[in-house]
Amino acid sequence: MNIDEMIEKLEEAKKSLGGEAEVMLATQPAWPMRYSIQGVALLGKNVICPDCEGYYMEKLANGDLRCCGPHCGSVIGADDIEKNDDNKVCWIVEGSQGRDTPYAPQLCWDSDNAL
Ligand SMILES: [Zn+2]
To answer: How far is Cα 16 from Cα 20, in angstroms, rounded to an integer?
Structure first.
């Protein structure tokens, strides 16, 4: 799904529910979980460690990234990240789980309920 398609679906949802309706994220249909939306991030599709190909990178105080892969710890300079970032993606970032229940309705994946 691209940004235009997402906006179109959200505009349709807004017409039905109004702009104040909450937006939530439903994940993993085999064991449906719910999350609030923390925000949106623009970042490369594959920001990975060049040494171990790990995906979990932590940001250091100076903006560099350090790999948290087992036995790795490689550091990528902040400038290198931007230079090589020709494949940016709009990420919807999960927030916290619901207080009442952590589960999402399995019917979120039912085509009758899709926009
Ligand atoms: Zn690594």
So the answer is: 11
Domains in the chain: boundaries: 23-44+91-115, 46-86
Q: Is the dihedral of CA 31, 32, 33, 37 positive or negative?
A: positive
Instruction: State residue 67's pLDDT score.
Output: 92
Q: What tokens appear for 69 in the block? A: 């892969």
Nearest to 48 by CA among 74, 24, 28: 74
Separation of 100 CA from ligand 1 center, angstroms? 38
| pLDDT for 63 | 87
- State residue 79's pLDDT score: 77
pLDDT band at 23 (very low <50, low <70, confident <90, very high): very high
Please, which residues have CB less than 5 A from ligand 1, an ion? 49, 51-52, 54, 67, 69, 72, 74
